[in-house]
Amino acid sequence: MSRKLRSQHWFGGLDKDAFIHRSWMKNNGLPDDAFDGRPVIGICNTFSELTPCNAHFRGLVEQIKAGVLEAGGLPLEFPVFSCGESNLRPTAMLFRNLASMDVEEAIRGNPIDGVVLVAGCDKTTPSLVMGAASCDLPSIVISGGPMLNGQFKGRAIGSGTDVWKFSEDVRAGVMSPADFMAAESAMSRSPGHCMTMGTASTMASMAEALGLALPGNAAYPAVDAHRARLARLTGRRIVDMVAEDLRLSNILTREAFANAIRVNGAIGGSTNAVVHLLAIAGRVGTELTLDDWDRFGRDVPTILNLMPSGAYLMEDFCYAGGLPAVMKEISDLLDLDCMTVTGKTIGANIESAENYNADVILPREKALTQQGGIAVLRGNLAPQGAIVKPSAATTGLMKHRGRAVVFESIDHYKSRVDDPDLDIDETCIMVLKNCGPKGYPGMAEVGNMALPQKLLKKGVRDMVRISDARMSGTAFGTVVLHVAPEAAVGGVLALVEDGDFIELDVENRKLHLDVDDAELSRRHARWVAPVPDMPGGYQGLYVERVMQADKGADLDFLVGCRGHAVPRESH
Ligand code: FES
């Protein structure tokens, strides 16, 4: 290797500093030749028992280490903040940016030449890629893999997707509480992350589509030996990437993001990918806007028949050929020249892919929807944009005018939604405020708010819902999300009142509040900004500096790549 590796600024030489760096590392048994100039590979691990989706990572990391050693590198594992979706309150998204800071500073401050990013649960993938992108060293993603399909009473059940269904069935009185409890154990049958096309599987797919992970990364189940093998190959490959100086900025081009957006449409991927990809692009310095989501994704058919848009689960996706097979089916829509971590182009990576199950990966003419991308809506209610996922929505509600029933906060919603006297029917539009980046804080996944019990009992299963929140990638419905500006900063959303009429027209990308400007001005003059729950601390900093959803909800001072120059010595 012609250039001097970063790690040699720590481990090379004969002075006291090099003595200190090497000597302490030797306390775990490393021999002299561990510091002979071989690439040091940081293994950035989001293992945590509080993040159950990532709790199997110790075994996976052993495979990565073996791969690094086989290729002549020195693997050094380090832990970073693990944002687990199922336990972390008030929402894991609040901590995505914090975790990304941890990743960025840990990489830059240590003797690392290349990084393996070990991610799984929803926010762990974007937080690692964002942090690594701000450093721009050779980096490769390996995902922990999805759980095996859920199985309950003879049928497959999906993480999240069936939780929402079962919960509404219990409230509607058509499922017993005992069955509800029994489904818990049946749903999560093995290590791994959600096995629907929720946010974790979407982000694993995005990593693969962007060219950041080896082919096959998205779909192999966590417990499949293929996953262990992929980890080993990932460990080997990162050593070569250091030799090639193949960095994130070489891979995360505008064309790569366009590919990922199109793949997201084809797989019926999570709406959360919107904020995550915008934030990643911001870190690496690649131009990407909210409107690019509509521009690139608009005419992409959703051909992957997976919950929540379709019927199958990630295990089925794996056996059908995984993401390379989907990308092959839509290869005419992709830029096949994009470089990837394999050192080859996307086109070369998917060349030999095959579709083994046309019920799971559908032919284009049988797509779930021909317009599978994320629709970006605008209008006086969302001047900076809002989004809806057509593949998860009800066709008959995509053009709808309805009377607003307004919930001022998530607590107001919870206290009011099941009030038998609530004046609401299935033609109404449910509006939820103050759940955006600053308002919740952290832009919680509450946008797919459950319907009022009295309507569920009538058999209603979808209504138009509008908020500044996000929704789980496993969720479904005609749910308008990410309204910007959010209510907590005085966006027009804050001014909606019970009884106003709202017009949604997805085909024409319109979201309009039917209240004239003079009345909106009067309401704005009366509007009082909500008081944040927690002054100071990280949450205070977050509320002060977080950007709106259309900018990826990153902290404004974290945008950009700050590189990986070797910091000054510590002694
Ligand atoms: Fe971790 Fe769904 S809760 S991936």
UniProtKB/TrEMBL annotation:
Single annotated GO MF: iron-sulfur cluster binding
Residue ranges of domain Dihydroxy-acid/6-phosphogluconate dehydratase C-terminal in the record: 359-553
UniProt xrefs under SUPFAM superfamilies: IlvD/EDD N-terminal domain-like (SSF143975), LeuD/IlvD-like (SSF52016)
Coiled coil: none
Superkingdom classification of source: Bacteria
Pfam families named among the record's database cross-references: ILV_EDD_C (PF24877), ILVD_EDD_N (PF00920)
The keyword Metal-binding is annotated on this UniProt entry: yes
Keywords recorded for this protein, A-Z: Iron, Iron-sulfur, Lyase, Metal-binding
Limits of the Dihydroxy-acid/6-phosphogluconate dehydratase N-terminal domain: 38-348
UniProt-listed NCBIfam families: PRK06131.1 (NF004784), PRK13017.1 (NF009560)
Entry similarity comment: Belongs to the IlvD/Edd family.
The protein, known as: Dihydroxy-acid dehydratase
Species per Swiss-Prot/TrEMBL record: Rhizobium setariae
